[in-house]
Amino acid sequence: MPTPTHRHELYTVAQVRALDRHAIEGLGVPGFELMRRAAWAALSSLRRHWPQARRIAVHCGPGNNGGDGFLLATLAREAGLHAEVLALDETSSGDAALARQAWKDAGGSVRIWRVGEALPEADVHVDALYGTGLRRAPEPATAVLIGAIGASGAPVLALDVPSGLDADTGSVPGAAIRADVTVSFIAAKRGLHTGHAAAHVGVLELDVLGLPESLWQGVSPDARLLVAEQLPPRPRDAHKGMNGHVLAIGGEHGMAGAIRLCGEAALRAGAGLVSVATRAEHLFALNAARPELMAHGVDGPQALEPLLARTSVLAVGPGLGQGAWSHALWLTALDSGKPLVLDADGLNLLAREPRRFTQPAVLTPHPGEAARLLGSTVAEVEADRFAAARTLADRQCAVVVLKGAGSLIADPDGRLAVCPWGNPGMASGGMGDLLTGIIAALLAQGCEAWQAACLGAALHARAGDRAARHGERGLLASDLLAPLRALGNGLDDD
User: Fold this and answer.
1) DSSP label at 22?
2) Which amino acid positions bind K(+), per UniProt (predicted)?
3) 366 among the known binding-site residues?
């Protein structure tokens, strides 16, 4: 399949519908022709992924997504495959009605789905139920069909969007198809790249249906996928003072590991110097395990201030806690005006004492921390991660990395990027501490907050993917440190 020109540009459903209308009304491509091209793209994808398939079952809704399905079934039959169609309704609308008639004219029959009936025997099930048109939970009868498709054991190809997945937000309000492959049309829908979408889209492909470049002129994408980047090589006469000095603040009683991971990640990401301000009880362990970290026992603000004066960037929050000691260091660090990365309890303290940042700042909340900062719930954050990230960035006047599957990076101007890397093995303790250190190191090396957040999120996730080559389950945060160093230098760590 040719690589689409706009594969890194992400659009809202409203934008994609406007592009579709412009293709029809402005470029003169009939809607039925777009449907036919989508069916060809879907059949091509099906035959690439399942070349041995001989029987397909196509599940069609009443709208244009169903029309794509009817034409796919027609083309599949012409290509010698056995195709059966299961429809939700007796009738279809618009161009989908023409597609339905084309299937009947080719000798095909349409079976209406009834709860309790068995699905057709199939090597591949094709989901053409809803597409981008659904933003609520499917009707009960359709939910039963979705469940039956999932329980069939056969692979699933979703057309445009897995039915039940909100193409705008990535949320799943009810039953939803879990596709093995999703072939999306015209433009990439932003909701297919974050949140619960990761468990539903499978392999995601984009086909622009042969539309000309002029279709996208003057249309700014809502968000963009990050691309793999790296820092430029260092000059041959570089010295440690040229690469910044990070001060990592945290490590309350019993939480030395968090601040060590943060500090070590800052070193591996290229900071020239890394100091740690923590409880005195942790110094021996830190010095023994990682002597390159300059660890300091700090009992309060007065002990912290000399360290602040010598450093260029702060990493605040890993293992910090929320007690009196923690709050005093947190407040002193924020009032210093130094560029900073704020995570973990640094964010929980911010939720208790909100402020807008005047210095360069990057916040790295997971959905729970984001909910506390927004005064909402995790469910509300996950229902629209794009809105949550943008609201936080605007409210705090900071760059925000909303972590999770398909991490989002937002800035106060509304700019937004999506991280396409990462894996479930990274859902373990200490991963966020690494991200804090990585972004702080990039700030220390001269990156602006937006660049540091984007590059840091990418390096972190890509290192996680490299480390997961040996398996996702049991992946440790410290397993990312070697591939992180390699990726930061543009090297292969194998």
Assistant:
1) I
2) 65, 127, 163
3) yes
Which residues is 402 bridged to in the sheet? Answer: 408
- 406 known ligand binder: yes
Q: How far apart are CA 435 and CA 277, in angstroms?
A: 18
The token pair at 177 is 């198809």
Q: Within this chain, do residues 424 and 476 fall inside the same structural domain, yes or no?
A: yes
User: Is 289 flagged in the annotation as binding?
Assistant: no
Task: Name the residue type at position 202.
Answer: G
Residue 136 among known ligand-binding residues: yes
* Pair (100, 220) in one structural domain: yes
What does the alpha-carbon distance between residue 120 and residue 110 come to, in Å, rounded to a whole number? 12
209 and 81 within one domain: yes
Global model pTM greater than 0.70 = yes
If asked whether residues 282 and 213 sit together in one domain, one would say: no
CB-count exposure of residue 294 (10 Å: 0-12, 13-18, 19+): middle
Residue 407, annotated ligand binder?
yes
Assigned token pair, 23: 């293709």
Q: Is 482 annotated as a binding residue?
A: no
- Annotated binding-site residue? 458: no
404 annotated as ligand-binding: yes
CA-nearest of 148, 231, 244 to 452 is 231
257 belongs to an annotated ligand binding site: no
pLDDT tens digits, one per residue of 150-185:
999 999 999 999 999 999 999 999 999 999 999 999
Distance CA 279, CA 477 (A): 22
Q: Is residue 256 within 8 Å of 285, Cβ to Cβ? A: yes
3-state secondary structure of 256: helix
Which of 237, 32, 61 has its CA nearest to residue 142? Answer: 61
362 within 8 A of 344, measured Cβ to Cβ = no
Q: Say yes or no: 244 and 391 in one domain.
A: yes
Asked whether residue 53 falls in the same domain as residue 118, the answer is yes
Number of domains in the chain: 2
Q: Is residue 240 marked as binding? A: no
Asked if residue 67 belongs to a known ligand binding site, the reply is yes
What single-letter amino acid sits at 221? P
CB-neighbour burial class of residue 237 (10 A; exposed 0-12, middle 13-18, buried 19+): exposed
Does residue 407 form part of some domain?
yes
Domain extent, residue 432, equals 240-488
Quick: pLDDT tens for 369-406: 999 999 999 999 999 999 999 999 999 999 999 999 99
